[in-house]
Write a structure and sequence with these properties.
The protein has 2 domains: about 160 residues, GTP1/OBG domain (Spo0b-associated Gtp-binding Protein, Chain: A, Distorted Sandwich); about 200 residues, P-loop containing nucleotide triphosphate hydrolases (Rossmann fold, 3-Layer(aba) Sandwich), CATH 3.40.50.300. Helices cover about 20% and strands about 20% of the residues. It contains 8 helices and 14 strands. The longest helix has 17 residues.
Length: about 375
């Protein structure tokens, strides 16, 4: 199925049923009076989060959604049946905008989220509602009000804990395929990733986080160059960014320059996104001898004046990948919202057993080289 992250739909809520004009007619009751019932309310339209969907592709052809109309009132003071509400399943992370007003109606942030996107019409009133001491035989009723009609724009922003960014061919897709069950396209030419690809990374029992890979960025991406600008919004819902760099560019100075270029594009796109937690990940270290690799990393960090965390991995051989995923899991857990009961409990330092600095062969930074 083709990945679609933007779509336009029309939603039409059900009209309210009309009121009934009727008079009671029974033997031996010559003045039965009005008994026309009210109509039923029209059905409303709701957007509902569905964890089984990951794209807006279902809205490419089916663009009009209509809720059921309310039934008209009937005799014997019988109220018409209300129209059934219409629930439209949408993937998690969907933002719903009103095209006419550009208003954000709501967003689906968790399973079970339910947003009313079109209000059903109100029922009409039957003639029994207009009976009074001075008007005992009213022949008046009201029609139901029309249901709300809206043209909506749907935008999908994938929800993930960890996002991968970097230049094309930095190894983002390879890393995702190595640590999760996701199978993105991998090839030796740029822009093999044409749409965001999420994957679930499992770290131990009952421990996992979602990682998302987006198309590689190039200079000028914030102005529309390349493919990445269209999908940068998918990183806005991530809490941790892994900035991947290739340790074997044509020129060694390109490593630091590539990092600066991507950082500049993030700032141009969203300053809030640029200020998010970032870790530098040196990839393809299996292609360099250990001494040469360490010297290159030290020169790059000094050139960038990098003060954040960094890791050295090989996505192909998985060297250092387990350490990176464990540290990411610890960070994600530490940043997760906690209840009041959890806040009262003393924290257990889980990083002591999983600290990459305790294993010099893990491919992660040492105590002298890394600043947490």
């Amino acid at each position: 199925m083709k990945f679609v992250d933007e779509s336009q739909i029309e939603v039409i809520a059900g009209d309210g049923g009309g009121g009934c004009v009727s008079f009671r007619r029974e033997r031996a009751i010559p003045f039965g009076g009005p008994d026309g019932g009210d109509g039923g309310d029209g059905g409303s339209v709701f957007a509902v989060a569905d964890a089984n969907l990951n794209s807006l592709a279902d809205f490419r052809f089916n663009r009009v959604f209509r809720a059921q109309r309310g039934e008209n009132g009937q005799t014997s003071e019988m109220t018409g049946h209300g129209g059934d509400d219409l629930e439209i399943p949408m993937p998690l992370g969907t933002l719903v905008y009103d095209i006419e007003t550009e208003e954000l109606i709501g967003e689906l942030t968790h399973v079970g989220s339910r947003i009313k996107i079109a209000q059903g019409g109100f029922h009409g009133l039957g003639n029994r509602r207009f009976k009074s001491s001075t008007n005992r035989a009213p022949r008046r009723s009201t029609p139901g009000s029309p249901g709300e009609r809206r043209d909506l724009r749907l935008e999908l922003s994938l929800m993930a804990d960890v996002g991968l960014l970097g230049m094309p061919n930095a190894g983002k897709s390879t890393l995702l395929s190595s640590v999760s069950a996701a199978r993105p396209k991998i090839a030796d030419y740029p822009f093999t990733t044409l749409y965001p690809q999420p994957g679930v990374v499992s770290v131990g029992q009952s421990k996992s986080f979602v990682m998302v890979d987006v198309p590689g960025l190039i200079e000028g991406a914030a102005d529309g160059a390349g493919l990445g600008i269209r999908f940068l919004k998918h990183l806005q819902r991530t809490r941790l960014l892994l900035h991947m760099v290739d340790v074997l560019p044509p020129d060694e100075s390109d490593i630091a320059e590539n990092v600066r270029v991507i950082s500049g594009e993030l700032i141009a796109f969203s300053e809030q996104l640029a200020n998010r937690e970032q870790w530098l990940v040196f990839n393809k270290i299996d292609l360099l001898p250990e001494e040469e690799r360490q010297a290159l990393i030290e020169r790059t960090l000094a050139s960038l004046n990098w003060a954040g965390r960094w890791f050295a991995i090989s996505a192909v051989t998985r060297q250092g990948c387990d350490v990176l995923c464990r540290e990411a899991m610890i960070w994600v857990d530490a940043q997760a919202p906690r209840s009041e009961d959890q806040l009262d409990k003393p924290e257990v330092d889980e990083s002591a057993d999983a600290d990459p600095r305790s294993n010099p062969d893990s491919g992660a930074s040492t105590e002298d080289d890394q600043q947490s």
